[in-house]
Amino acid sequence: MRNPRAFLRPLAVGAPKPSSDVPFRPSRMIHFFDPSNEKMAAKVPDIAKKVDIILGNLEDAVKTEKKEAARQGLVDIAKATDFGDTQLWTRVNSLDSPWVLDDLITLVTEIGDKLDVIMVPKVEGAQDIHYVDRLLAQLEARAGLDRQILVHAILETAEGVANVEEIAAASPRMQGISLGPADLAASRRMKTTRVGGGHPGYIVRQDPTGEDLTVGRTTYQQDLWHYTIARMVDACAMNDILPFYGPFGDIKDVVACEDQFRNAFLLGCVGAWSLHPVQIDIAKKVFSPSAEDVAHAKRVVEAMGDGSGAVMIDGKMEDDASCKQCLVMLDLAKSLAE
Ligand code: GLV
Ligand code: MG
Q1: Where is the signal peptide (predicted)?
Q2: What's the confidence (pLDDT) of residue 22?
Q3: Strand 316-319 vs strand 310-313: parallel, antiparallel, or unpaired?
Q4: For residues 135 and 265, what is the distance between their CA atoms, to the nearest angstrom?
């Protein structure tokens, strides 16, 4: 049986060296397509060559009357396409929907040998993962599969966020978790109307410098998702699974998309969703360490020798802890280059 954690790279939290010998698979973007959309589906073989992960979406954004066509479309595409090193994922319908049982039965039976990961939306607690885990085990046995399909949870309800630690630890099948900002905003009754990203009203303002409080006070937009991403990253790091930022719906705003992806990368995420080809390159750029970061990390690691003690580089103190951060960066850069 394939090692179920074969997608995982240890995040090396607290460890000077990566400890895993399982193969690394780049996971910088999860590229969504609608298998019921024939035009989109026709482009899948080409797009699959450009992305780390391609995902056939069966849930939200697929119209109710297209649910069955999307499921069948994904089966047909998967059978007809050689995905090479690219991972094939699907997002099934939510566990309270009338479609999910057929999604799981059909996909595992028909294309279980090609499916790497099943993304489960609106996960609220460990019980949701246990249910999918048991069902997958039965279906894999019935289909005679000699590999385990992994599970990825979307964190997109208030209850899910409250239970994120138990979700991350719920099964050895857990591959990772994505933040779903759109559903989460609705679940929390946030007063936004967007799919991910910031909001011009969510700001901090500079203190006044004069009597007139309305004059010349710079505002800074804040990250609406900081708390949730940080919590999700901790839960994932604790369980050696991978955290992702989810969708950024304003396709034209490539600047804000890059900012949102970079905030997530800096906080520990390994990738984000791409909803349009223009977001593929943004994710590739953001979630691969920059040449400057790699060069700096090499300098620190070399100067630190056995990784203990402290050195001064460009006027800054570096020690065991910053050396560990540099090793995380170098490990990721090396893995992506292989
Ligand atoms: C993704 O599914 C989201 O709700 O943001
Ligand atoms: Mg959602």
Answers
A1: none
A2: 60
A3: antiparallel
A4: 33
- Say yes or no: CB of residue 247 within 6 Å of ligand 1: yes
* pLDDT at residue 24, rounded to an integer: 85
Residues 6+ apart with CB under 8 A from 169: 126, 235, 238, 239
pLDDT(12) > 90: no
pLDDT in tens, 135-191: 999 999 999 999 999 999 999 999 999 999 999 999 999 999 999 999 999 999 999
Q: What is the DSSP letter of 242?
A: E
Nearest to 283 by CA among 15, 28, 18: 28
CA distances from 67 to 97, 102, 123, 196 (A): 11, 10, 20, 24
Least distant ligand from the CA of 186 = 1
Give the ipTM of the model, two decimals please. 0.99
Is the shortest distance between the CB of 61 and ligand 1 below 6 Å?
no
